[in-house]
Structure prediction request, 460 residues.
Amino acid sequence: MAAPGSVEEMRNRVVLGEFGVRNVHTTDFPGNYSGYNDAWDKQRFEKNFKVDMIHMDESTLEFDMVGIDAAIANAFRRILLAEVPTMAVEKVFVYNNTSIVQDEILAHRLGLIPICADPRLFEYKSEEDECDEINTLQFQLKIKCSRNPQAARESSDPNELYINHKVYSKHMEWVPLGSQADNMNANFRPVHDDILIAQLRPGQEIDVLMHCVKGIGKDHAKFSPVATASYRLLPEITLLQPVEGEAAERLKKCFSSGVIEIEEIKGKKVARVANARLDTFSREIFRHDDLKNLVHLARVRDHYIFSVESTGILPPDVLVSEAIKVLMGKCQRFLEELKSIQKK
Amino acid sequence: MGDEEEKQQPRVLQMVRAEGSDKSCVTFVLHNEDHTLGNSLRYMIMKNPEVEFCGYSITHPSESKINFRVQTRGGLPAVEAFQKGLEDLMGVCQHVLSTFKASVEEYKTKNDETME
Prediction:
């Protein structure tokens, strides 16, 4: 730990005090500190930068990104939420809807269903473009509810009385456009089969045709590829003095479980920081006047613990790669624009 | 004439320079951008010792553009500082992407081994 109040601490730690958070902003810019060379150095960045996977499965990803500034880490997070494209239902053609769900509500519900289709296979569709195989995916939902003739007379269970009374996302059927069926061996469908869209009663029916297009979360949240994408800074908890006996027990209770552990040393209970990473900084410690000055709470400024939860359309590691590429695309676009302006 | 051209092609980048100021002070107008590019680019440009000031503002919540100001100490034209910032940011992204991909691969092979 850097000494409290030192320049090192000011540069590298966000300090959590009793009455506020200190050293929040990045200050390591050239000219701010004498004796430090803060000019951008690609080699130094590449030497210090690290990515560690903590956990990855089909839908969630947790990884550490170390040695980068908040400005850039936050750009990745923002892009994940709002600028990585996906396919979602954009237009709903209602041929018949006699259910109690109004057309516009139904259309909205259909829009929010994640569609399992790789957006990289498609192009954006502009207002004047015709729908074709490269910019549109078509789905049909055609379902009618009826009485179940086999149902027992005295039954009052709708599941037994009616057929097709629950409309699920699995009832959406892909209708290939143009050469989609031959060219793409992918099977386009909703990510989850069991999303309840509407409930029907005998005689009611829904008959709609849907057009999915490529879009980004900035335009509408239904296009967002993540359920959530967030980061937190690595906690750093330091005991400034040995904490023993009853105080150690109380100290342990002030933090999330697993953060502080108690060891027996020569018959005495001594507190030890076991795993600061688990802490959520509840600030409980500041309610104990005798303990609050014995610990130093901080966060490591350049250590980001990212957590990305995909909606299931693309695996989360692909989403992060795509987000990085989106930021590169932005830089590229402005570099090219700059070039063309300078030519004029 | 210029207007017609602008109507046909949506503007991406504009450069505004106050009258009488030299090349070291330029405000760039980045269309269809927000904090995502604004803040990360500001960080990269501020890391350049030649730059005296760099900042941005979102003109209005319902306008999707940012005003991006760059002032250099005089030696370097602001446009070049801006360009260097973009190139540096591009370099960072490239490195992050390759590191991230390598890390994913490593995790996957390690996981496969433990599965077997």
In short: The longest helix of chain A spans residues 316-343. The radius of gyration of chain A is 28 Å. The first strand of chain A starts at residue 13 and ends at 16. The CA atoms of residues 138 and 211 of chain A lie 5 Å apart.
